[in-house]
Write a structure and sequence with these properties.
- This protein is mainly alpha-helical.
- It folds into two domains: about 120 residues, Helix-hairpin-Helix base-excision DNA repair enzymes (C-terminal) (Endonuclease Iii, domain 2); about 100 residues, Hypothetical protein, domain 2 (Endonuclease III, domain 1, Orthogonal Bundle).
- The C terminus is likely disordered.
- The structure holds iron/sulfur cluster (SF4).
- Iron/sulfur cluster binds next to helix 11.
């Protein structure tokens, strides 16, 4: 007897649809919308940390392309178009004093002490009248306050004697004031006079070296490299963007790579997110 059982029709197998692989441009567009980069797995992070330790020793990181640098600053600018320094001040003189007081101290610590001080002395003449002993008392919560009080009185005297009581718009004259070095002069030139200077503090030094943006053994070396690579239109605010980035995101102990707007561009092997997007050099 012929077998009348109907033949079993094989079911059509439907494979789950795989997400299309994103191109570099798509990943970049996603990053521009502020989506967090994907965190690395534990193994990848441990391997990255090892690589980073070795790289930190050798100081060899892949070069940023011109387009990548421009993209990083475009993002900093988009996130914070008019960044401001965090040291409270009311005029160029109080800015100069605040920066001198902030050496090896935090801005927050300086800002606690300066309102009372600047209410009494916001010009070199008033500072001299206040006197070193009273000044010392007002700033005693700030580290190295004895030396700093001496310097503030010294620079106030010099401003009156040589610059008519005004803060000079001149690097050499600024650096000749007691307690004022290149970094302080750079901050004053940038904030008080709108010069496109980059003051390399501990945060910028770390960010430059860690990310590979400006690798150098000294703050001056990092400053020179940044001045050479930061596009001109971003140079005025570069100092603030990089300080804020180092202070709040690319922090020393455990950088918050998952919140970082330049995570895909950063060259640090120890970063907690996946590999950088390769962006072509637009200038090539
Ligand atoms: S990815 Fe991480 S290490 Fe790189 S710049 Fe951002 S926070 Fe710093």
């Amino acid at each position: 007897m012929p077998n009348k059982m109907p033949k079993e029709v094989p079911k059509k197998i439907r494979l789950p649809k795989l997400p299309a692989r994103k191109t570099a441009q798509q990943r970049l567009a996603a990053a521009r919308k502020g989506r967090a980069a994907r965190l690395k797995g534990v193994k990848a992070r441990v391997a990255g940390d090892r690589q980073a330790a070795q790289r930190d020793k050798d100081r060899e990181l892949p070069q940023w392309t011109t387009a990548e640098i421009a993209e990083a600053f475009r993002r900093f600018a988009a996130a914070n178009p008019t960044p401001r320094g965090e040291l409270a001040h009311i005029n160029p003189f109080t800015l100069l004093v605040a920066v001198v007081l902030s050496a090896q101290a935090t801005d927050a610590g300086v800002n606690k002490a300066t309102p009372a001080l600047f209410r009494l002395a916001d010009t070199p003449e008033k500072m001299i009248k206040l006197g070193e002993v009273r000044l010392r008392d007002l700033i005693k919560t700030i580290g190295l306050y004895r030396t700093k009080a001496k310097n503030v009185i010294g620079l106030s005297n010099k401003l009156i004697e040589e610059h008519g009581g005004k803060v000079p718009h001149d690097r050499e004259a600024l650096e000749a004031l007691p307690g004022v070095g290149r970094k302080t002069a750079n901050v004053v030139l940038n904030i008080a006079f709108g010069e496109p200077t980059i003051a390399v503090d501990t945060h910028i030094f770390r960010v430059g070296n860690r990310t590979g943006l400006a690798v150098g053994k000294t703050p001056l070396e990092v400053e020179m490299k940044l001045m050479a690579v930061v596009p001109e239109q971003y140079r005025l605010h570069a100092h603030h963007w990089l300080i804020l980035h180092g202070r709040y995101v690319c922090v020393a102990r455990r950088p918050l790579c998952e919140k970082c707007v330049i995570a895909d561009l950063c060259k640090w092997p120890g970063k907690a997110v996946n590999s950088p997007v390769q962006i072509g050099n637009a200038n090539k």
